[in-house]
Amino acid sequence: MSDLKIKTVAKATTDYLLSPPLEITVNDRAATRDAIIKQLNRNGCNFITRSDWAAHKNKSEKMKDDWNYKNIAIHHAGRSYACGPGALQLQEIQRFQMDKSINSMDDIGYHYAVDCSGNIFEGRDIRFKGEHVHNYNTGVIGIVLLQNMSTPEEGGDSISRLRVFLKKMGYKDNIEIPENQRKALSMLIDVLSTFFHISVLGGHREFPRQLGEGKICPGNAGLSLIKSLRKSKGLAAPQS
User: Fold this and answer.
1) 97 lies in which domain range?
2) Residue 120: enclosing H or E segment and its boundaries?
């Protein structure tokens, strides 16, 4: 290589090293989905994609796009659930919501799920509008905690009366939120807040005009956790 070429390469290298870093703007929703997953993995979370928990194929032709999320809604899996294998619970939830519920859905309604061991699961693709809060899904990310977080008396129906009776008979029905689940949920909220302008964190029943089980979800224990997270992260409650 000639002296001129060597000097030219050396100057180009020096200019590159001294130049400020390029700002790369990615306006790609698929790339953002992947970036969220990578950031959670880098932060030490165990993230499980749809394919890894054997999700059923969604009805993508019927699903609506959504983005610019500002709200996060936290749910519990329901009063019939307890801590258990997350993948199997998600399969059951998706099958019920798509095939057996009165208003069948196009996919599992939640965007993410967190099990009692702290595993984070991908639910509905974040690029699509969820189906988890009655008449209030636009701009709302849905996260379900895979256990029951309601206290026995909640609901005032036959299920709650049975739970109260069993508790009086000595059956332990204490609701505990494992520390791994708490930490994983907190981390998930933090990571989502770096990609979206999240300003509201609420429990399902805190959103306006909810019906049925939505008036209970995510249970008294779940709501206590949400209030603690709201305070520590400086987020607001939903406007009723």
Assistant:
1) 26-233
2) strand 120-122
